[in-house]
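Handout, section 3.2

Students often ask what a structure token actually looks like in practice. Rather than define it abstractly, here is a full record for GAF domain-containing protein. The first block is the sequence as you would receive it.
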Amino acid sequence: MIEIPKFTGSKAENYQLCVKQVEAMIAGEPNLIANLSNISALLNQALTDINWVGFYLYEETSNQLVLGPFQGLPACIRIPLGRGVCGSAAAEQTTYLVKNVNEFPGHIACDAASKSEIVVPIVHNGQLLGVLDVDSPSFDRFDETDQAYLEQVVAILTNTL
């Protein structure tokens, strides 16, 4: 059984604890879906003021992102590359930090309650695997601290592949 710690510190302290937990949880586990499931559950516990956290996986045959493991309300199942925040981050293979999703051209509203979003692409050996997507019901929820630590979580994941 995996024990989830209490995340009661500052944002940086919670992320540091979360990073250690991710490393411990996925060490030696080769199954991508199992690792993504546990990472999304852990992030859901560690992060405050979020309403969705999960993964979209790249499907090369359709050139789309397909819903993967997540925590939150039901979500969009397919997102074409280049569309919305997730599709744009995937196409450009760069992190998108969106302070107000209503101002993002072509935003795909899977949950009308979402006001801000951060999307981190998952790239391994130059190949797009998917994205980590985190939404919040508050404007301006995510910052450079979130970006740095979420990119670190994705790096830990890709290092196990």
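Discussion prompt for tutorial groups: The domain at 11-159 is CATH 3.30.450.40 (Beta-Lactamase). How would you have guessed this from the sequence alone?
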